[in-house]
Amino acid sequence: MSVRSAFLVLLGPGPRHGYQLKAEFDDATGESWPLNYGQVYTTLQRLEKAGAVASLGEDEDGRIRYELTDHGREEAEEWMASPVQQPLASRDEIAMKVLLAVRTDPGRAVAVIDVQRQATMSTLQTVTRMRAEGGDLPWMLHLDRTAMLAEAELRWLDRAEERLDAEAGADSPKADARLRSTPIEETT
Fold first, then answer.
1. DSSP label at residue 183
2. What whole-number distance in Å separates Cα of residue 11 and Cα of residue 150?
3. Treating both helix axes as pointing N-terminal to C-terminal, what angle do 18-28 and 37-49 enclose, rounded to 10 degrees?
4. How far apart are CA 84 and CA 133, in angstroms?
């Protein structure tokens, strides 16, 4: 997601100044995407230069308000209507560590997987506690997504260890127990 696109969407209901945009962005994202004021005003200047927003001048408090132009409204609508294409080859650091360890030292790959599994479980426990505390809808949706991504990562780590065990010809009871509790559909 680009901050540019987010600002265009946030300006849809009506004119805003930079401070309002930052506050609404933080609120809408559950403060999961840190945004500094310098980035806010740089983005607004770029949007104005591109003809996507227009400055309305200063309000009574001396803050510059911006509104969408027709071009900006079209860009916001196009962005919201377009699906996000997830690349098949991503630069995921966890995957990279495991893949490099598999290539260079399969024994080390199991250690990398174990360390990551512990860290991901810790994240999942933290997120689970945070979900129990509740919050507004954007925050809860963010926590739900974070939890589901952690669960998916744990399943992938289990699958990676299962494949390493199979490649080594090992019959790991630890892997077998995890596989029985976490079914994974075979895709290949």
1. -
2. 33
3. 110
4. 30
E runs forming strands in 53-157: 53-58, 64-68
Identify whether the C-beta of residue 45 lies closer than 8 Å to the C-beta of residue 39.
Answer: no
> Do 11 and 73 have their domain in common?
yes
Is residue 130 assigned to a domain?
yes
Amino acid at 140: M
pLDDT tens, residue by residue, 56-79: 999 899 999 999 999 999 999 999
| Of the residues 81, 113, 133, the one at which a domain ends | 81
Residue at a domain's end among 34, 51, 81: 81
Among the listed residues 148, 152, 155, 151, the one whose alpha carbon sits nearest the alpha carbon of residue 175: 155
Torsion of CA 153, 159, 162, 163, to 10 degrees: -120
The boundaries of the domain holding residue 165 are 93-181
63 shares its domain with 107: no
Residue 117 pLDDT > 80: yes
Q: What is the pLDDT of residue 32?
A: 74
165 falls within a domain: yes
Whole-prediction pTM value?
A: 0.67
